[in-house]
Amino acid sequence: MPSETLRLGFIGPGTVGTALARGLASAGYSVVSVFGRNAERLCRAVESIPGTRAAESAQAVVDAADIVFLTVPDDAIRSIAAALVWKAGKAAVHCSGAASLDLLDGSKEQGAAVGAFHPLQTLASLEQAMRNLPGSAVAIEASDSKLEEALAQMARALGGRPFVLHGHKALYHASAVLACNNLITLLDAAAGLWADLGFTKEEGLKALLPLVRGTIENLGSIGLPNALTGPVSRGDVGTIERNIAALSEHAPETAALYVELARRTIPIARAKGTLSETAEKRLQEYLEGR
User: Fold this and answer.
1) Are 125 and 199 part of one and the same domain?
2) pLDDT level of residue 1 (50, 70, 90 thresholds)
3) Which of 71, 140, 148, 214 is the most buried (most CB within 10 A)?
4) Integer CA distances (angstroms), 60 to 42, 57, 108, 203, in order
């Protein structure tokens, strides 16, 4: 279905819903209706989305639109979808990264097509989401080829790169959590060490961020395993010993994290070809004793 003939609706005008609605409206899609229980958030969303209007109910969105995005918390998707009246020709789409299409069984049983549309991106604020969506991968699932192609077109209209998932949604989401959320956890631990250097965590983070950006740029340009640097890559067991000794004294819980990450880094260094067999054996023996 061409974008100019599709009528889109959104139930849940949070950061994700508003960013997608605003982006698609700017790309030429007709976003006809938005509904949310929070009046202030709904008003802000409608004001920022060209050509849309606030609906009086979630059902009003379903009645007005061809494709309805349920951009609500994951735990609410199933109950909201099942409580609404759907029919053939309509489509219900959720944006959960971890859940598959079964959350929309209530819509599917009434004849609606169902799908999922998940930008593989961190969307912490509306402004940041609008900046980061272009270039992002977008995971798509759909119950039929017509909806699949419509969602792929939307992803491309947002400047994204669509790809179709065939099951294993939770595994996909676990990958995203490791790459995004756990990066924050790792940097919290790294920046926290700067307190013993006489600096605040905020100062530590500010100092570390250029290093993180450089690492990300290397990953984008030369990929894995070539972007790996550091003592494991070089087989520098003495440096690793000094690191762990310092961590054991100042931050024992982080020492355990460092050891586990060093173990997980060995195969990457081996694949890069910079870790000799002798150094790998010494490193394995040292880490096994930690």
Assistant:
1) no
2) very low
3) 71
4) 14, 5, 18, 50
Q: What is the pLDDT of residues 74-92, one digit of tens each?
A: 999 999 999 999 999 999 9
Q: How far apart are CA 3 and CA 261, in angstroms?
A: 47
Banded pLDDT at 4 (limits 50, 70, 90): low
Nearest of 48, 68, 47, 49 to residue 57 by alpha carbon: 68
Share the mean pLDDT of the chain. 95
Is it the case that residue 281 has pLDDT exceeding 70? yes
The domain spanning residue 122 has which CATH number?
3.40.50.720
**What is the β-pairing status of strands 30-35 and 67-70?**
unpaired
Outline where the chain has alpha helix (H): 15-26, 39-48, 58-64, 74-83, 105-108, 126-132, 145-157, 169-179, 181-192, 201-222, 231-234, 237-250, 252-272, 277-288
Peptide bond into 225 cis (omega under 30): yes
What total of structural domains would you count in the chain?
A: 2
* End residue of a domain, out of 126, 144, 167: 167
Specify the amino acid at residue 85. Answer: V
Taking a C-beta distance cutoff of 8 angstroms, is the pair 25, 45 a contact? Answer: no
Name the pairing type of β-strands 137-142 and 7-11: unpaired
Domain assignment of residue 172, yes or no: no
- Residue that the structure tokens 């819903």 belong to: 17
pLDDT at 272 over 80: yes
Same domain for 268 and 135:
no
Instruction: For residue 199, report the phi and psi dihedrals to the nearest 5 degrees.
Output: -125, 165
Q: How many CA atoms lie within 13 A of 26 on its CB side?
A: 13
Enter the pTM of the model.
Answer: 0.89
